[in-house]
TrEMBL record:
Originating organism: Mycetocola miduiensis
Pfam families tied to this protein: PaaA_PaaC
GO biological process: phenylacetate catabolic process
Protein name listed in UniProt: Ring-1,2-phenylacetyl-CoA epoxidase subunit PaaA
Gene Ontology molecular function: phenylacetyl-CoA 1,2-epoxidase activity
A cellular component annotation (GO) from this entry: cytosol
InterPro entries registered for this protein in UniProt: Aromatic_CoA_ox/epox, Ferritin-like, Ferritin-like_SF, PaaA, PaaA_PaaC
Amino acid sequence: MNSAELTLPATDDAQERYFQELIDRDSRIEPRDWMPAEYRTSLIRQISQHGHSEIIGMQPEANWITRAPSLKRKAILMAKVQDEAGHGLYLYSAAQTLGISRDEMAEQLIAGKARYSSIFNYPALTWADMGAIGWLVDGAAICNQVPLCRASYGPYARAMVRICKEESFHQRQGFEILLELSQGTAAQKEMAQDAVNRWYWPSLMMFGPPDDESPNSAQSMAWKIKRFSNDDLRQRFVDMVVPQAEVLGLTLPDPELAWNEDRGHYDMGEIDWAEFHEVLAGRGPCNAQRMQRRRDAHEDGRWVREAAAAYAEKQAAASLKAAS
Ligand SMILES: [Fe+2]
Ligand SMILES: [Fe+2]
């Protein structure tokens, strides 16, 4: 069923009912459809935060491009970081369809008013971190994002389809880096294990606070933006990575991890929520550095934006002249 098959409403009440009907039928809301103001605001917040995460997320890995151990590794890592830039751009475009401009979003990020995923406030200390980030961070992103391919807002859902395809490549390349290291020398295996030890818990925090402390989740699920709760997604992720860790020959740093026959899932230890809130509040190991780098990049790119705007203006004037 698509929106064209429903009768178009006239009054505000009818519009609201029509919106709800589209949601109930699992149809998509498109940019020109009427939507409640809160639905719009909540999507702008979510999509722009997601876009900011992709953009800031380029930093920990870009840091290793020049130090990648071979030309092949360098090319792969560079392609991955470029993919993340592309994800940021698709998402900013999706958010723009809701009425916010790119400049506003950039401004919010630079001013520290907008959030991005806290995971990128951790440092990438060794080459093995490129493996752990790909495997765990992109892996957690996939668990979070696959259900978003069915989000009720059309432009967001469609952007996620391509993003998810690229994220699975990212996860595989991370896994492959770790596999090679874990089958290498004792020092290489130790480096891989150390990276996994440092990235495992922060990757679990990527799913957000526990369900009973996640105030926006219920509304987001009622609007079919979010399809599964934070804890459900976290569980899925843990169930996915435990057997993968076995293949890698690495351990996960949670002594309480154990298969629970009754639940059909792995039990896990308690997350350090104090650390989660500290990083979220801006006091993680790299928050200040990531923001400074983004501000500098924005400033360094000013001449490009000005040149592009001047060129576009010139082109528009020329085509206007040609038309008259
Ligand atoms: Fe991405
Ligand atoms: Fe990625």
